[in-house]
Structures are given as structure tokens and as C-alpha cells.
Amino acid sequence: MSDCIFCKIVAKEIPAQIMYEDEFVLAFKDLSPQAPTHILIIPKTHVENFLEAAQHQGMNDQIFTGIANLVKEQGWNPNGFRVVSNCGSKAGQSVFHLHFHLLGGRELTWPPG
Ligand code: DGP
Q: Where are the domains of the chain?
């Protein structure tokens, strides 16, 4: 999608600190980190949210496989991170290309705001 910032990151038209990449998924550091570790994992294909992703065979699986590969590759402690996706503006979604936030490296409280 031509005016989507995350599609531009996928196309390498704008820079990002890439942490993981495979055929289907890209993961990069969030510009505005909310925790010492704050990575965004996105599908390379533009979809707005995970409900739309469910219409694409295997896409949500590909994303979660990418997240697991990223955690494994980085050697992060599996005890203490959170994966969250804001779905819609009322939930805080500000970029309408599906992304999962991976947050870690500090105590994470519940419920989130
Ligand atoms: P959300 O509010 O759930 O839609 O999260 C969007 C996140 O995207 C937010 O934490 C900031 C991040 N973000 C926005 N623009 C850019 C960008 O150009 N580069 C990077 N790395 N992150 C961005």
C-alpha cells in the first residue's frame, strides 16, 4: 500500500532497525519504545489487523512463527515478555498495517492502560 509507513519499511524505502526477517514477516525496533525491548512484528503483505489476516491462509501462523524464531535467535528469556496487537483506534492502533508489539526487559504490569 503506497501510503503505508510499514509497507515502506518492508520495501526498505525508509530505514528501520531490523531484528528478524523471513519470506513472510519483518520485525524491527519500535520508534517509540515502551520497554527496554520493544519490537514490532509485521506481515510483509499489507493487512489492517489480525482479523483481516485471518482471511489470508496461514498469515497469523507465519507471524507467530516469526515471533518464536526472533525470541529464539536473540536468546531472550521466554519468561517475561508480552505480545500484543492493538486492533482499532479505540484500542490504540495508530498504524493500520497489522503489527504485534513484543515488549520485554522490564516488569510488565496488568491490566495495560
Ligand atoms: P500502534 O499504536 O499499536 O498502532 O503502534 C504503532 C507503533 O509503531 C508505535 O509504537 C510507534 C511505531 N512506529 C510508528 N511509525 C514508525 C516508524 O516509522 N518506524 C518505527 N520503527 N516504528 C514506528
A: 5-104
In the CATH hierarchy, which top-level class contains the domain 5-104?
alpha beta
DSSP helix/strand/coil, 38: strand
Per-residue pLDDT tens digits for 16-60: 999 999 999 999 999 999 999 999 999 999 999 999 999 999 999
pTM of the predicted model over 0.85: yes
Which among 108, 81, 84, 113 has a CA at the least distance from the CA of 98?
Answer: 84
CA distance linking residue 54 with residue 3, whole number of Å: 23
- The answer to whether the CB of 95 is under 6 A from ligand 1 is yes
Atom of ligand 1 at shortest distance to CA of 5?
A: 18
